[in-house]
Design goal:
It is a single chain. 28% of the residues lie in helices and 33% in strands. The protein has helices at residues 34-49, 83-102, 118-129, 131-144, 178-181, 200-209, 242-248; strands at 11-16, 22-27, 57-59, 63-69, 73-80, 147-156, 161-169, 188-198, 213-219, 222-227, 232-240, 253-254, 257-261, 279-286, 294-296. Strand 12 (253-254) and strand 13 (257-261) form a beta hairpin. Helix 2 packs antiparallel against helix 3 and helix 3 (118-129) crosses helix 4.
Length: 299
């Protein structure tokens, strides 16, 4: 058990494995252990029949029950459902939905048939590995109505790859097809996530990076770098240093919103369909654990 972790246990029940009869119980509140016994015994027996090695946990509407099966007994720890469980359950449910939508199951499925789902699964694993990014990802998805990629990797001008905390593709929500809008990233939103206080240097680096990503394409002269320039740059942080705000105050405004002018990145490029306008508007969100994030005004 990791340092500083405190598990909230509401009860302990030990059952006889074969009958499901509760042999010993110690509960914090007035909970009848017999309510759990038949269900625990049935699920434990079913999992053993399938040689799954025993059931590790299951849930009721309000509780999570962790099980440790042995030859003669099953010990259950009863704990309340916590925020982390709800998030994990939501991610698992969403992953299942995405699988069902993208994969057509044959009559006799073979595991190797579904290797193409690995990219989607990798995205979800990234969310689980960083709970704060996962929370911000859920908020960004609801706020900006796009498809979100976690720790997205894009090519840079020098041929190397860089990482964006969250990349939002808002093509579908804008009524456009991905093929026509990804050419210059005009429907992309770059999101920077900071679990602490976002400083001036971090803000400068993020703003400077906006025109540094793109894709390498083949033209008549060989490989060429076609830059992306997002329509919006978003920062989500728990706090902001005053220097970061002051840096943004130097940016131009359009309809009282701060933006980064990206017109210079297309200068001299012989590319078709270059966007007529290239403003990247900047949104700053102040993260709050128990409330909706607050959109800050940079005057």
């Amino acid at each position: 058990m990791r340092r500083g972790y405190k598990m909230d246990i509401e009860g302990v029940v030990i059952f006889e494995a074969k009958s499901g009869i509760p042999l010993y119980s110690r509960m914090k509140g007035k909970t009848d252990p017999s309510l759990f016994s038949s269900f625990v015994a049935a699920i434990g027996h079913f999992s053993k029949e399938l040689r799954f090695g025993g059931l590790s946990s299951f849930t009721t509407e309000e509780k999570v029950i962790y099980l440790a099966p042995r030859e003669k007994t099953i010990t259950a720890l009863i704990a309340p459902k916590k925020k982390e469980y709800q998030e994990a359950y939501s991610l698992a449910s969403e992953l299942g939905r995405r699988f069902e939508e993208n994969i057509e199951l044959p009559r006799v499925p073979q595991p190797k048939q579904f290797d193409s789902f690995a990219q989607v699964a990798d995205e979800f694993l990234k969310r689980i590995q960083n709970p704060f990014v996962s929370e911000v990802s859920a908020f960004v998805t609801a706020q900006y109505k796009g498809e979100v990629s976690v720790k997205a990797r894009l090519f840079k001008k020098d041929g190397s790859q860089g990482t964006i905390d969250l990349l939002v593709d808002a093509s579908a929500s804008n009524g456009n097809s991905r093929a026509t809008t990804d050419q210059f990233g005009s429907n992309y939103i770059f999101v920077k996530v900071c679990e602490g206080s976002f400083g001036r240097l971090q803000m400068i680096d993020f703003i400077d990076s906006l025109d540094g990503f793109g894709v390498r394409v083949m033209d008549k002269d060989g490989l060429a770098f076609r830059p992306y320039f997002p329509s919006r740059a978003v920062v989500v942080a728990r706090d902001y240093h005053q220097g970061a705000i002051q840096f943004l105050e130097r940016l131009p405004t359009h309809r009282d919103r701060r933006y980064v002018d990206g017109a210079h990145i297309y200068a001299g490029l012989k590319l078709k369909d270059i966007p007529k306008e290239s403003r990247c508007f900047v949104d700053l969100w102040l993260w709050k654990d128990d409330e909706k994030p607050e959109l800050l005004e940079v005057t």
